[in-house]
Specification:
The protein is an all-alpha fold and about 140 residues long. It is about 70% helix and about 0% strand. It has a domain of about 100 residues.
Length: about 140
């Protein structure tokens, strides 16, 4: 029992669709890299804070305000680093998706070019072939039907 190809239903994809998808993915990657990256930098700047303006730490533990602040700071730093790692991963996956989409579009174009070349060759063969016999005449091939 072989693996059957997926049923795509009425799905028709043109090379233009693939080009548009690659452009969209590139814009999405730019958004992740630029806009969200910029916001992450702003968050890290704000995390530096204002050390001359001490504030009470919410959800305090019995270790005292300084230890609470250190623990919360470590958690915030960790989560910020995780977020940056996720953004980098998303960006690289989008780059891979764009490359794959462009490769598929190239394969479509190559197949279209081959089909066009084959069509031209068939036209040349048909033009150079002997014309068919008139109705009722003897066929041009030597064997009876």
């Amino acid at each position: 029992m072989g693996i059957t190809p997926p049923d795509t239903g009425d799905l028709h994809v043109s090379v233009e669709d693939l080009d548009a998808a690659a452009d969209y993915v590139e814009r999405l990657k730019q958004y992740v890299d630029d806009t969200i990256g910029y916001e992450m930098e702003r968050i890290k700047e704000r995390m530096k804070g204002d050390s001359s303006n001490a504030q009470a730490v919410p959800n305090g533990t019995p270790f005292g305000a300084y230890e609470d602040a250190r623990m919360q700071w470590a958690a915030l730093t960790r989560s910020t680093a995780n977020m940056e790692a996720h953004l980098k991963a998303i960006s690289s996956k989008l780059a891979g998706l764009k490359k794959g989409t462009e490769d598929i579009a190239k394969a479509f174009r190559d197949a279209e070019a081959r089909n066009a070349a084959n069509g031209k060759q068939i036209e040349r063969l048909l033009e150079s072939a002997a014309p068919p016999p008139e109705a009722g005449q003897q066929p041009t091939y030597p064997y009876p039907a």
